[in-house]
Q: What sequence folds into this?
């Protein structure tokens, strides 16, 4: 797996602490933003990068997309 930046590590840690480890417990960017105490734009961009790296999965929903960890 590619090296993670400090922000990517913080976002993954927030997902883990929120319990977003499977498709039934997905969390939104807002949830992650509040938990990681980072600006929403930064969290959103980081989620895109983590999805590209294969660390998390994005689930499209009617309202906000949700995310969960697929590899630790």
A:
């Amino acid at each position: 797996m590619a090296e993670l930046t400090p922000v990517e590590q913080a976002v993954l840690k927030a997902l883990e602490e929120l319990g977003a480890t499977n498709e039934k417990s997905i969390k939104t960017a807002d949830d992650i933003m509040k938990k990681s105490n980072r600006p929403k734009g930064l969290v959103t961009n980081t989620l895109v990068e983590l999805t590209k790296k294969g660390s998390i999965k994005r689930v499209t929903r009617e309202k906000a997309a949700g995310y969960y960890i697929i590899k630790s």
About this structure: The chain has a mean pLDDT of 93. The chain has one domain: 6-69.
